[in-house]
Amino acid sequence: MTKGYITEIFSSFQGEGPYAGRRQIFARFAGCPLSCFYCDTSYARDPRPRFCNVLFLDKKTCIKRNPLSTNEVMDYVKELLTPDLHSICYTGGEPLSSTAFVKEIAKEAKSMNFKNFMETGGYSAGAFASLADYFDFASVDIKLRNHRAVEEKDYDKLYSNELECIRIAVDRGIETIVKVVVVKNTALGEIERICKDLSDFDIKFVLQPVTPHQRNNEDATGGTQIDIVPSVKELFELSEAAGLYLPEVMVIPQLHKLMGIH
Domain 3-259 class? Predict the structure, then answer.
């Protein structure tokens, strides 16, 4: 049985995209090869954390030593089960960094009639292809150049993998969400180019403005998140540009930050 590293497991409302407000059980997989400057889960970048925090419905936390087995993860899923559950959300960090482990958990979850929801930066189309058959939903982030997710010389490779992940998801009948985090002064032309590249895909497209957390307005660089929040005028312009190429465009902030929840 495969074992792997998870930073935390908890139940909450989905805070991003068209399924915002739906109840999910989140498994936050450890490790991420990207380094987006606005990252709000930088604590999950450690690929081998010693412990996984499991937050139970009564708000008590269990600190479990990593690595975990698939059976342990599914036992926690059962304990977190509520009647309003939409799906299990595989997030990070970056779940594609734990391909074999994610695949085993997703396969087991499918056998128990759970729906599986992937949140990924799409950095590896090969890894995504090996997992896709076990997922019902995929939310793929497209990184902009100014996100500084990778070095400039590696950006085109990252972008190519992201597009290929989206193509694979659509081709395999996965409900596909494409999300772009936008900050102040996001280039209109870059959004237009991305949407043009996506125009042949059946997707939901989300522009997600950086959203300050009620309890913490600092970004990963120590700067103030409010300083990088795009204006409403910018969001209207970006949405209109996206609408020239895509039929389903939406602007959705991070609901969980506005609500002040995990």
Answer: alpha beta
Task: For the chain, give every domain's residue range.
Answer: 3-259
Do the Cβ atoms of 51 and 66 come closer than 8 Å? yes
Residues 6+ apart with CB under 8 A from 149: 34, 35, 36, 121, 143, 155, 158
Per-residue pLDDT of the chain (262 residues; tens, 9 = 90+): 789 999 999 999 999 999 999 999 999 999 999 999 999 999 999 999 999 999 999 999 999 999 999 999 999 999 999 999 999 999 999 999 999 999 999 999 999 999 999 999 999 999 999 999 999 999 999 999 999 999 999 999 999 999 999 999 999 999 999 999 999 999 999 999 999 999 999 999 999 999 876 444 444 444 446 689 999 999 999 999 999 999 999 999 998 888 888 7
